[in-house]
Amino acid sequence: xxxxxxxxxxxxxxxxxxxxDGPAGLPERALLRRLQLILAGQRFPAHRWELIAEAHxxxxxARSVEQLQALPERRYNNLLEVLxxxxxxxxx
Length: 92
Prior knowledge:
By secondary structure, the protein is mainly alpha-helical. It is about 60% helix and about 5% strand. It has one domain. Helix 2 runs antiparallel to helix 5. About 20% of the residues are buried. Residues about 1-25 have low confidence and may be disordered.
């Protein structure tokens, strides 16, 4: 189970209260919450390909998988790093 530290909780509040729309008009908050559910069983640190494999294993929708495929190829230390990277890409 993923737990938040003090600094992570502050970031979590910032991320989950975002108001702009993500891909296909899905509110950013909903996209990030959906990715939280999809990646809830993922062990970290994890590479991008592992996140994508977990999403496929979960049965994630195509848009969620596309968001993970669009991430830079690197190792992510925790779920918040993934969510932050998705949020940054969706704001471009």
